[in-house]
Amino acid sequence: MITAPGLAISADQRTANDSSFFTAPHSMSIACAPVIYIFFNRPELMRQSFAAIRAAQPTRLYLIADGPRAHKPGDTERCAAARAYVESQLDWPCEVTRDYSEINLGCRGRIPSGLTAAFAQLGEAIVIEDDIFPHPDFFTFCSEALARYRDNPKIHGISGFNPVSRYLPHERRAIPTETHITWGWASWHRAWASYREQLEGWSDPEVQAAIRTRLRNDLYFSELVSAFRAVEERKVDAWDFQWVYTMLYERRHAIVSSVHLVENLGFVVDATHTFHVPTFAKSLRSHSTPASPWPEADAVPDRLFDRIHWLVMLNGSRVKIAILRFIARYSRSLACSALRHNG
Question: Cα(301)–Cα(291) distance, rounded to whole angstroms?
Answer without folding.
Answer: 21
